[in-house]
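User: Please predict the structure of the protein below. I'd like the answer in structure-token form so I can feed it into my own downstream comparison script.

Assistant: Understood. Taking the following sequence of 590 residues as input:
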Amino acid sequence: MVLSTNNNTLPLLGGLLLVFSALKGGHALVAPPSSTRLQHHRSSGSDVIRPTLPFNVNSGVVPHNNWIERRQQPPSRVYHSTCVRKSSIALHSSATSSSDATSATQETEAPISITMIVGIASALVGYFYCKCLKIGFSLLWRQFPNSNLSKAIPSSKHILCMMTLGGAIVATLSTLFFPTLFSAHDYVHVLSKENDDSSDEKNKMDKFPGVKYMFPLLGLSLITSISGFSLGPEAPMVGAGSLVGVNLGRRYIKSKEKSGDSSGIDVSKLEETLAYAGAAGALTGALNFPLAGPIFALEFTSRRAGLAGAAGKNWNAVMMASLAGMAVIRGLLVPTAHVGGHFTYSAKAAIGVLHGRELVLAGLGMGVCGAVAGTCFHKTVSFLKSAIWRKNESSKAVVIGKKVLLAMLIGYISTLFPQTMFWGEPSMQCMVDGQCTPFSATPHGIPAAMMQAARVNPNLPFASGSAALQVGLAKFSAIALASAAKFPGGVIFPLLSNGASLGHALVSALGPVLPTASSSLVPPMMIMSFMAAMLTSITRTPAASVLILAFTASGITPLSVLLPGALMASYVSVWVSERLSKDSFFSYSE
């Protein structure tokens, strides 16, 4: 029987077999340019259709010369026997590769149970840590000023005294007893290195210490934050959560070894997966980031706008851990707490619409400006570290003395600019709307008597762009000095708050050329975009930064209008930052 040009049944069946073979075996269908056309051959005076198949029975691509015309057989038999034989071989090959891939996955993928346990445990760590932050703030800044013990301290000197005292405690404890705290810098440095066959790479997870090192990290960062330093809980959560994950993974492996069921477990990859899962769970529990937390934990280990190879492979486990932690925290511990953010980026109702040209110009412009600001920040921190610390500082008394002096300097800056104090998240609304929300009205508001020396009144809207710039530079200096002094803490919300004040200064400077008369959405979009760009320039987490802004925004914030510009600015900031400086705030191994 000779196939006619009107009968496409067999080519269709052959195509279906190819698709099935590719899906089962994971092969890509790479077709030569001519493979999409049916080749017509004359044989015995009849038209014979001979399709050129775009696959190889062994490797996924078949050369055209594999289809050799056998004129001694009828054309229909040649086509039928060849198609069936090669399709069966392809199916066998794909099934073999599929079983190999499945077995490999089983050896390296973290079990669901241990992943969820890590997510819940690390989320609980984050949740109770933030509870301690609130209690500590209330004791030190609300109750202590009203006690008899504080009468010896003038109200105008309260900020300076508390920050100096807190800095002295942290400096003494960290220098004498905990000189090598595990931090987010270690998390990034270790996990940004790809696994290979060398012995150093196989044992890279050994650099994660035991879980007991989590407690000094949490305790010292807690004292730092409640003392008024502009450092937050984000980095401690990443460090503590990853330690929880790695050490729970080690306990799991030991239990398997005792039961004699540890064969096939890739210890290093399992610990790596659970380190990511623990960091994501802790961020979710502490800051209520149901999606931004895990994505931040994954993006954090790449110096570029994307995921490191190992991070991408752990997407499923990280999401599972984060959702498990969120289910316990939001569903059991705080079931009646409201869901959603609370930052409003405009003090008034929006007027007009935002056009595409304004979106693109603002996104690109704020991305570049944020990259410049972020690069200046990490260059400033690097310069301060090199100027303050020697490579082999032998005297511990000198180290403690330097940290205390730096804490005193930061306290002086905070006395002049009280709105720069603390880690930023509870008081960031004051910066987002240009102090239209008084600082005293935020959860981090302190008594007015402590703010008598303020250069810019924190309870009144910015009177000018100069006022916003002063606050922005003061916040910039406070974060940079605290980071250079090696006080433990994170920079996510401090940098977002800093970006908001600097964004207001930039909007004020560009006011004459902005189309504010036709649209009131341009300034808040520029401010949000600058916030995202400045943070992303430091952390290299463009997607997570935008998600953080989205999840923390209030319900009346027009996110569908503001987020596209912020997303553009975030990625532009990473690309520009890479070209402005080869160095970065965090140390990557890739």
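That's the full token string. Residues 75-108 form the longest helix (34 residues).
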